[in-house]
Amino acid sequence: MSSTAIKSFHQLSSRKISNGAQPIVMVTVCDSPTMRYATQGGADIVLVGDSAAMVMLGYESTMQMSHKEMEVIVGAVARTESDLPIVADMVWGSYHVSDEKAVKNAIELIHAGANAVKVEGGIERVGTIQALVSAQIPVIAHVGLTPQSILELGSYSVQGKDFSRAQRVLEDARAVQNAGASMLVVECVPDALSRAITEELDIPVIGIGAGRHVDGQVLVMNDLLGIGAGTPPKFVRKYENVESIATKAVACFAADVREGNFPSSEETYHMADDVVS
Ligand code: KIV
Hints:
Blueprint lengths: L2 H10 L11 E5 L3 H9 L4 E4 L3 H4 L11 H12 L7 E4 L9 H14 L3 E5 L5 H9 L4 E6 L5 H4 L9 H17 L3 E5 L3 H10 L4 E4 L7 E4 L1 H5 L16 H17 L14 H4 L1
Parallel strand pairs: 1-2, 1-8, 2-3, 3-4, 4-5, 5-6, 6-7, 7-8
Bound molecules: 3-methyl-2-oxobutanoic acid (KIV).
């Protein structure tokens, strides 16, 4: 665990745009290459998101990913040379059974190399956040659209659109701050709501599909790179089309092999002529 990463996490925990600070740049990572891209590309902090369940492990929802799978991914990310703070998502089921189990599982993620953990939920998660914080584990909370609630919600849709639902998201945000969360992720809510949350809370609010009036932005790495099937949600900006670049590279290799153009003599090990004859 890098001491620079620990220090950066603490500095980020008090970074608010209302104090004139630059917005926080967070990206998700799911292996060593993506951790290198985040580091070299100048992100401030990475999230080993359980979105890896869908973008990397082929599951239909994040609810199918196991704690063991998350631990393996956090380990791979943490073994990559970088001073970025690492936040590990706690997967569904790993903090819902009891606070004791939540603390035990969070400790395993810290042992694997995380500097903090993220849990989804608001008022209903207060006890768990308090238990994690009392075990000296920094927590990032996640409100608004919480993908681990997909069975209950039925679809990944914008949350807090009418007054009473917006009020509930605001109350969730207040509750997790009061429980001791160091930062808050707000997903898929109208910008007026995320702005109100950001202005009221002392902890940084990082948005995804929550407009620009927040203390930072997070995107899923695969989405911003343009890797993956299907149409991404409207809040995603695809900065590259890595899927098409990678597909072209494989197609060129296949053509070269079939046409006898690979390997060339320079790509081949040779014996000295006198050994061969
Ligand atoms: O798992 C994830 O990628 C996330 C982000 C959407 C914040 O939780």
